[in-house]
Specification:
Layout lengths: L19 E5 L28 H12 L5 E5 L9 H9 L6 E6 L4 H11 L3 E5 L5 H8 L4 H14 L5 E5 L8 H14 L2 E5 L18 H8 L5 E3 L2 H4 L5 E5 L5 E5 L12 E4 L4 E3 L8 E2 L1 H5 L4 H13 L19 H4 L2
Parallel strand pairs: 1-2, 1-10, 2-3, 3-4, 4-5, 5-6, 6-9
Antiparallel strand pairs: 7-8, 8-9, 10-11, 11-12
């Protein structure tokens, strides 16, 4: 694919330069994690509203021409999208080609990891909240732990590295200190990079309760029952959402993404595209910018770029979770993408 005409970078009113695009390629999922959606699921997006392979690649190309350097494919569960390999190959053919990664629950990755690597994907983040089958079923409402673990192994074997593991802890569910330490030991043993994420108000049922969320400090306290943790410097962190800690002197690290108690909005460089073609300038934005409709009505790349720039211009300084007037976004995480 020929090189795209380069446009001015995506800079908001607060000087944040946006280099990271998260694309939700589907809102459907094979699990029902309680912090995301109810056991019976949610109404899925109508298929005609979903972006096609060509539309996803085209919008990614517009974003790349505005300085986007990394594209993360998310969901729902991106592996449920049958044309996922084609989407990856299309984005890998962009010039310049972005780094392409994916956030997944890992189920089915054992069958797809080599093809995704060959298409141009570089690494994956896999969600794994526990190593205990009974707790996995209680959290995800599905008996699929073996599938997730098989996907993690397959990603590492294929070379989609570093394999990062994302873990959300919920009070009284999967927060036993021994089990939390077991996750870290599992990651250390296999060379995976573990990241704990504070539970955020993004569930479809709007049942988020701050008291049920384990804070970053509580997570670290549990890990320190078995390991010595040394924090990295802020300079080493940069715009990354995770605060990293050297484990037992290193070189291995463990990360904590304390989105609620220690927001990192001031260095946010992310923008999101939903599976139905809406730009969201913040994970917690209550408004969206429609790119699908004008694209299907014949808008040029320059016109789409202008819409994207306008969305970023309206980005707020922070997510506002800790403000008394905070409103949870109407879309759940499964429809927004991580």
């Amino acid at each position: 694919m020929p090189a795209a005409a380069m446009r001015d970078p995506l800079v908001d009113r607060y000087g944040r330069v946006h280099r990271d695009l998260r694309i939700s390629v589907t809102d459907r999922c094979s699990l029902r994690c309680t912090y995301c959606m109810p056991e019976e699921g949610v109404p899925w997006l109508a298929r005609p509203t979903m972006l096609s392979t060509e539309e996803v690649v085209r919008l990614a190309g517009v974003a790349v021409s505005m300085g986007i350097e990394e594209v993360r494919l998310t969901g729902g569960e991106p592996l449920l999208r049958r044309d996922l390999v084609d989407v990856v190959a299309g984005m890998a053919a962009l010039d310049p080609a972005p780094e392409i990664s994916m956030t997944t629950n890992g189920i089915g990755l054992d069958k797809n990891a080599p093809a995704l690597l060959a298409a141009g994907m570089t690494r994956v983040n896999v969600s794994l909240d526990t190593l205990r089958r009974d707790v996995f079923i209680a959290l995800a409402k599905r008996d699929r732990l073996d599938g997730t673990l098989a996907g993690i192994r397959a990603a590492a074997d294929a070379g989609l590295v570093p394999v990062k593991i994302n873990t959300v802890l919920m009070r009284g569910v999967n927060d036993d200190a021994a089990d939390v330490v077991a996750l870290l030991d599992f990651a250390l043993e296999h060379g995976y990079e573990l990241r704990f994420i504070e539970q955020m108000p993004l569930d479809a049922q709007h049942g988020w309760d701050r008291s049920q969320m384990l804070t970053g400090e509580e997570i670290l306290a549990k890990l320190r029952t078995a390991h010595e943790l040394t924090p990295q410097t802020p300079e080493e962190r940069g715009s990354a959402p995770a605060e990293l800690f050297m484990v037992d002197g290193g070189p291995a690290t463990v990360g904590v993404i304390a989105s609620v108690t220690m927001p990192f909005c001031g260095s946010c460089d992310r923008v999101r595209l939903t599976a139905d073609g809406m730009i969201r300038n913040c994970l917690f934005a209550t408004g969206e910018t429609d790119l699908r409709t004008p694209m299907r009505e014949g808008a040029s790349d320059d016109e789409l770029a202008a819409l994207l720039r306008s969305s970023i211009a309206g980005k707020l300084p922070g997510h506002g979770i800790n403000q008394p007037d905070f409103l949870q976004p109407p879309r759940p995480m499964s429809a927004i993408g991580g």
